[in-house]
Amino acid sequence: MPSALSPAHSSSHDCLIIGGGVFGLSIARACLGQGLRVLLVDKQEIGHGASYGLLGALLPHMSERWNEKKEFQFNALKELSNVRDELESEVGISIGYDRCGRVVPLDTANLRERHEVRSKEAEHLWHGAETGYFHRVYPQDGPDGWLNPALCAEGYAFDNFSARANPRAYCEAAKASVIKRGGRLLEKNEVVAIKDLGEGAEVTLSTGEVLSAGIVVVAAGYSSFPMVETLTGMDDLGKGVKGQALIAKVGQKPHVPILYDRTIYVVPHDDGICAIGSTTEEEWDDENSTDERCDEIWARAKNLCPMLEGAEILQRWAGIRPKAAKRDPMIGFIPGSTSVFVATGGFKIGFGLAHAIAQVCMERIAGITPTISLPHNFEIDYHLDGKAWGSK
Question: In angstroms, rounded to a whole number, what is the distance separating the alpha carbons of residues 28 and 7?
Fold first, then answer.
């Protein structure tokens, strides 16, 4: 019997997924759970790339201008504890999930008033009476020793809905699940071309090998955009945005909240580790390098969280996140095709949405009755302006 890491040399796969980040892994899990035969191909090791980040903040959108996108994200975040339970039970790997909440220091009266409005809106939009989730404003200085009191001239805001997970552990667990469910992985093999055959599709690897499947899913992060542009004949559908972050050994107590000062996050993880980030760099040369911008976010983080002073920096990281030109995730079959499916553009919210996006993708790929409604702005037709295959 071939191992899970052996390549496929036939069209024995219902679904070939390009990209082994959190989107690709989640879609693979969902499709395998439906009984489909899945091959996952990545140019790096599975679970690396942008999904190999450090931050792991899982945060709801603010309540202003509430819409179907924010509702979709809210429901996805609400389900994450169930996703955690299922995944950890299946493979025995902790993903470091904790609904620890988030604190925002309020330094102006205007900011406090805005959060007071959000508090009232969250009570309704987050279904507080049913779920117990809230967003509240407090006049105090914030968690003692954790938040800089000098930043709290007008108190602080706290929501108990925000959460965190360890991105690398999440991907490790999802990868183990894919293998356990019978999926096959092909690592360190880059896809250089995709061909729609009408019924089925083929991909060509950098080695020259050609693989075929009933459906090809393009979930390769920011590398997805040139692939989709080639297939559709359209330009400028998205790009990669660089982010830098770091982790430090801080020694904080368990379950302290995420801190956010409207520029950076301090995200507490297990074992006294904190993640700090991240930068947003539209222009970049080297996707893996860190520079003085990492030093800048570390300095800001120490001002936000006094406990970071004197902490040991364990690792600095940089990666490229996929951002669609129209900002939202891009999901669906390429117009005119039943064989090439796209799932990319998670940008900064990918981990919080991946399991819900995967459910939508699986239902469409398998052709079964949908159980989740996808926001209009996530549909690929929205990103392509409804243009047909090959049109300019």
Answer: 16
In this prediction, what percent of the chain has a pLDDT beyond 70?
Answer: 95
**What local confidence, expressed as pLDDT, does residue 64 receive?**
83
Is the CB of residue 17 less than 8 Å from the CB of residue 24?
yes
- Across the beta sheet with 15-18, the strand order is 184-186, 38-41, 15-18, 215-218, 340-344, 330-333
| pLDDT band at residue 371 under the 50/70/90 scheme | very high
CB-based contact 151:160 (threshold 8 Å): no
Q: Is 19 left (phi over 0), alpha (psi -120 to 50) or beta?
A: left
Under a CB-based contact definition with an 8 Å cutoff, are residues 262 and 346 in contact? no
2: which 2 tokens? 């071939």
Cα–Cα distances (Å) from 103 to 40, 217, 267, 376, in that order, read 38, 38, 11, 31
Peptide bond into 278 cis (omega under 30): yes
Residue of 354, 22, 345, 297 lying closest to 167 (CA atoms) = 22
Q: What mean pLDDT do residues 164-186 have?
A: 98
- Residue 59's Cβ-count burial label (10 Å; 0-12, 13-18, 19+) is buried
Q: What integer is the mean pLDDT of 273-302?
A: 95
The DSSP 8-state label assigned to residue 387 in this structure reads P
d(CA 219, CA 17): 7
Six-digit token string for 89: 């039970």
